[in-house]
Amino acid sequence: SLAKGDEKSPSCFGYPLSIFFIIINEFCERFSYYGMRAVLVLYFKYFLQWDDNLSTAIYHTFVALCYLTPILGALIADSWLGKFKTIVSLSIVYTIGQAVMSVSSINDLTDHNRDGSPDNVSVHIALSMTGLILIALGTGGIKPCVSAFGGDQFEDDQEKQRTRFFSIFYLSINAGSLLSTIITPILRAQECGIHTKQRCYPLAFGVPAALMAVSLVVFIIGSGMYKKVKPQGNIMIQVSKCIGVINLPRSEICHNMRKASEKRLIAQTKAVLKVLFLYIPLPMFWALFDQQGSRWTLQATTMDGNFGSIQIQPDQMQTVNPILIIIMVPVVDAVVYPLIKKCKINFTPLRKITVGMFLASLAFVAAALVQVQIDKTLPVFPAAGQTQIKVINIGTDGATVQFESPLQSVNVLSMESTGYMTFDTSRLQSVNIISGNKTATEVITLPGGSRHTLAVKNAASIAAKWVSLFINNLPDTINITMGDTAFETLMSFSASNYNLFPGGRKDNIMAIINSIPCSVTSKTLGFGSAYTIVINGCTGNTLDVTYSEDISPNTVHMAWQIPQYFILTCAEVVFSVTGLEFSYSQAPSNMKAVLQAGWLLTVAVGNIIVLIVAGASKLSEQWAEYVLFAALLLAVCIIFAVMAYFYTYTDPNEIEAQFDEEEKKQVKKDEDVYEKQTEAVSQM
């Protein structure tokens, strides 16, 4: 039944004009969701300063929530508000959530001392969590409604157009995902801020928020053209009730027609339960698949993203998946499957799903092999009870630095530095510095589990200072700017704090010395590297600087991630596409929504599995965690293969046709009984 005033909507090229608003709406919404999600784990790691494990846990909790809320959205749409009002109301919640996320990432919100870092991180965390909960409610709530609402716009005789609409609809999802995972990491890599320049997370979250607002406005503009089907009750509620009475005897006094319809519903529910039983092992696939946005992105932060003239950001590597999907889907359908068929191999849907699970397991073995190579290149940081110290000599004379308890001595030439030396923090008490004919002693009180750089200089007397990024080796006070980032004013022989810069590029370093600007282009700052830069002087407006490498650049190239992305994308093509196709082919026509909800639930459970496995395993090596997930999926794959072997394919249309025939016979029987009863009454 249609809402009042819903006449046949205007058409364009044989399609209802209203669907174009729905497709634009879906493109903007998917851009918003995937754009925000692409930079989320790096926001946790670098802005909120969470470690890799906590960042991964919160990321997967959020994704799981996004795939649990569709059940709520379907119930609201089918039982209460209808699809249109549900989409509008939850899109408003969604837009507010995206806006809150953008605000939460504004560094200057709590940076009252203007030192470049938030003074009250808990405010940013609270806003972030509020924003993510609202986004999960919004994106999950509208997920089951938008595509179904688009399907509602077509007439019964427009089956061909409806099928093509769903293809275009899926294309808009992938287009939004692809563009957003390219664009938002670029926005994140920019520098912005009111008082201090930081990575531009407000813009990276703000653009998706703006796209979500556009999505909502576009959808509302088309309101007058939509065919709005009134809510008719939720089939999932009926199925839940039916499961409870499948094996219960029915009262003989029920009307025959009601009895027949209940018998049909019970048979349909049994068919759905049969498919849902096969869903039980599937979450393990999604547990691996969704780690593209968490563990694999974090893995990319330890790799070299220099692709010649293009510098790829770690979160941009996720674009490999949608790009390969666009290529692989037609190739697999047009080339791979026909070749398998020619080889006389019966590649059934359940066998395809089994192969998909095996390939995903293989992808994580590939990720583990890459991780082993990365681990060989990573610096060894101090444990909790250890301290690492590096010495840099910025004076004109050589220096000998002696650490006591235990005694360790190093000689450092002028403008040279040592590597990091590891000490037991509790035994590290003082350091003696000898340069020329002078001696000085520095008392050491340093926290454990961290690295420190000691700058020494022999001038009028020996000076020693714990330093980080920039060291002013001039007698004058200077102001330093690197790129768009301005550092605090540096007194003579003082140092600035470290700051983050996009890897793989050069930046302009400018120092204002006695009101005279002096600049130089920095060396290429490799991905993952850290430097201490000494400002030595200025000659003809050219700044004289010396670099001391604290952490060497990443050497394993990001291109080594492409094989694991390729294998996982192949797995997705044969698993995800086939899984939905199989589910729809085995389900009665009125049970599609139940299986859609069940399918989305497997994604949610998969993300919860990541939390459980990563939390319970306590593995210190990342490669070992990858192997653990690969082994778990391989075991689940074997279990699924056994379940699939015993599965019997059915044709729901044939079953429904049998029920239609039985109902016709029952109606005829009832009519005959009624006629006989009428005749008997008339003869009395």
UniProtKB/TrEMBL annotation:
Gene Ontology BP, a term: oligopeptide transport
Keyword Transmembrane helix among record annotations: yes
SUPFAM superfamilies (alphabetical): MFS general substrate transporter
Coiled-coil regions listed in the entry: none
Keyword Iron-sulfur appears in the UniProt entry: no
Highest taxon above the source species: Eukaryota
GO cellular-component term (any): apical plasma membrane
Function text: Electrogenic proton-coupled amino-acid transporter that transports oligopeptides of 2 to 4 amino acids with a preference for dipeptides. Transports neutral and monovalently charged peptides with a proton to peptide stoichiometry of 1:1 or 2:1. Primarily responsible for the absorption of dietary di- and tripeptides from the small intestinal lumen. Mediates transepithelial transport of muramyl and N-formylated bacterial dipeptides contributing to recognition of pathogenic bacteria by the mucosal immune system.
Record's protein name: Solute carrier family 15 member 1
Lineage: Eukaryota, Metazoa, Chordata, Craniata, Vertebrata
